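TASK: fixed-backbone design
INPUT:
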């Protein structure tokens, strides 16, 4: 991937880091980071990047501020599913389920019981570098998501952190609340289980169901057989809502050249455009049939900023306009 395609570098920029200076002072590190798919970046490599960023802006609480500046809509299908959860519990369940499938260097878990539930973040392998920034970024992202869903007044009942207590804890207390335990075995926060039933979204249930069913099918097919076609299809689905997503970006995210991607797809008698068209055709038809969403909203979710462009694409695929298709299937 290149710098413009990296949501992590965009996040660092929002936190005050100059990416130009980072490239000047740690160009090899940035280059190595960009050589990985972001879901596969080794934690130690990310920690080195965060360490360089901390030095540049003199911010020992960089991880906390990364969590505060994190936007779930930066991260494709994963973020979309979380943002469209209908209860707080569903948001945290989606967070755990899909994170553990789509990301490969750490895990998240939701442990529920009748009184208190614990949301845990766990790095899979021991790190050579102090992991504080990664831990604070990760936990902070989900704490922010909960606050966005139910209100800024909320703080975790308690937060456990595996690193030792730093000399200054003002920022940690501001974000986590005043019940922080350091040098613990886990990195987690506790939430009152009664809050999990709080409704947080009135977006179209059926459209989310359509996306989720297709995502689950693709994820399971990929996981079971490491099937190249299903992996491509899943990653195209993740990129549908991105305006500039194309075959070149897909190839970089899969860690291969564009020519290698085209060759592998050619062996399957497929192309990037054909697979993308399949997805758009399937998702659009289901959404038009099973939801009452405006055509403009369906178009936007499928990556079309203008309804006219979606109309043309759908007519090319289905032989009629979206409006005509919806009218036809209603009779």
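OUTPUT:
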């Amino acid at each position: 991937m290149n710098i413009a395609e990296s949501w992590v570098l965009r996040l660092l920029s929002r936190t005050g880091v100059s990416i130009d200076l980072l490239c000047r002072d740690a160009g090899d590190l940035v280059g190595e980071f960009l050589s990985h798919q972001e879901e596969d970046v080794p934690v130690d490599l990310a920690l080195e990047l965060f360490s360089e960023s901390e030095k540049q802006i003199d911010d020992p609480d960089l991880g906390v501020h990364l969590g505060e500046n994190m936007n779930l809509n930066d991260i494709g299908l994963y973020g979309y599913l979380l943002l469209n959860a209908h209860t707080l519990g569903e948001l945290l369940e989606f967070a755990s389920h899909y994170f553990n499938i789509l990301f490969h260097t750490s895990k998240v878990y939701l442990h529920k019981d009748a009184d208190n539930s614990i949301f845990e973040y766990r790095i899979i392998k021991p790190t050579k570098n102090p992991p504080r920034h990664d831990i604070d970024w990760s936990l902070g992202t989900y704490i922010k998501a909960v606050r966005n869903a139910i209100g800024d007044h909320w703080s975790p009942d308690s937060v456990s952190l595996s690193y030792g207590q730093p000399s200054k804890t003002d920022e940690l207390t501001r974000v986590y609340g005043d019940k922080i335990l350091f040098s613990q075995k886990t990195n987690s926060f506790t939430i009152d289980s009664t809050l999990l039933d709080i409704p947080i979204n009135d977006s179209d249930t059926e459209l989310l169901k359509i996306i989720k069913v297709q995502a689950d099918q693709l994820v399971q097919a990929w996981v079971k057989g490491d099937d190249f076609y299903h992996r491509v299809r899943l990653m195209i689905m993740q990129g549908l809502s991105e305006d500039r997503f194309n075959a070149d970006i897909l190839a970089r995210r899969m860690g291969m050249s564009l020519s290698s991607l085209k060759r592998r797809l050619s062996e399957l008698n497929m192309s990037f455009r054909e697979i993308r068209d399949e997805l758009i055709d399937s998702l659009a038809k289901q959404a038009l049939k099973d939801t009452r969403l405006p055509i403009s909203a369906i178009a936007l979710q499928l990556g079309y900023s203008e309804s006219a462009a979606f109309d043309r694409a759908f007519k090319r695929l289905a032989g009629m306009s979206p409006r005509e298709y919806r009218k036809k299937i209603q009779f």
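COMMENT: The mean pLDDT is 89.
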